[in-house]
Amino acid sequence: MDLRPLPSGVGVALVTEFADDGRPDVPATAERARRCAEPGGRAGLVAGTTGEAPRLSVDDRLALSAAVKESLPDVTVIVGTGQPDAGAALEASAKVAAGGHADALLVYVPPDAEPRELFERIREAVDTLPVLAYHNPAIEARALGPELLASLPVDGVKDSSASTNRLADLVELGVRVYVGSPTQLSIAGTCGAAGALLAVANVVPTLCIAAWRGDVDAQRALFGVHRASAAQFPGYLKSSEPR
Question: What does pTM read for this prediction?
Fold first, then answer.
């Protein structure tokens, strides 16, 4: 795995705020990103699953990433460019990379696409911009096994499986892993994961950072937040102020 520079630590999988007309509220989203990063967040993921990516056009993603980058010039901005079609994912990745406000891309593999071919084409299209694969069993996408991930031309993976056994495999195979589940933070932060990109960091970034650093009490407190978020997703996250 050819690893390009990316930060370690906790980042927020950012919600997208929407206006009454259904369009993204870009300033409100950027302001939430700023507040979520205040306790020491290292990254902001725009247009991921938590950001309701299917509601966002490529132009929306460009506008959001530009605003978030302006709000957080010293924080890594990762933009989701996955699409249900491989050609559309390639086009979105190239366009977002050319926009100049993304520090990295996050891409899932459509069910009918061949992972290696897709990532090779994306790497060619985005030059030196880091590319993370996205593994999330909750979305319609190709499952990416640990051995396959270790062989792909990507810079790591956001893994939202919540499987600690899978985390162990990925770490042992030398894959740069950003976990997507807050229930794994304490073990991930002490056992070799690169970081975390978390929906609950929209609400409790301070707790997330503490758990990542090995605070067991913080990890325990995150269980309730995780359950509330899952029960009303993404409404709970949007209705709660970052703290």
Answer: 0.97
